[in-house]
Design brief:
With 158 residues, this protein is of the alpha/beta class. 28% of the residues lie in helices and 16% in strands.
Length: 158
Amino acid sequence: MASGRATEEINDFDDLLCDLPYKHKVVVAGNQDLLFESKPEQVKEHLSNAVYLQDSGVTLERLNFWGCPVTPFLPYMAFAVERGAASKRHWDKIPQTTDVLITHGPPFGILDKEDIVASHMRCEQLGRAVQRVRPKLHVFGHVHGGYGARRAQTGPAL
């Protein structure tokens, strides 16, 4: 069992989720969620008001959701994976039938810059996976300055 303050934080988060007026809640961890990385099964025990996805999926209301917390390597962060083959192993798991993809980080070139002159905080492998799977919706965060929404361009899969 997760112990001490970490357990309290998960329980508080679960209480917050309970208060949200939605039938279903889906959670994907991020780069600050060290407990989710080190003890995912124990975290799941404390999240009774949401479905936690970690390289996994769930079907809700006839929609297939897939979630992955991986982000390009950041030292001392949770779910940090080297770009290239290491990250590709995670993105290759995304089923072709995914309707809603939820990732912590963005794909290359889509809302992946802190500001207009910043470098892309990219994940080319995730970009290729999104092109391959073509989910109806891809929800992600991580890059605080890259907030917003964008309609994807259509074109041939990579």
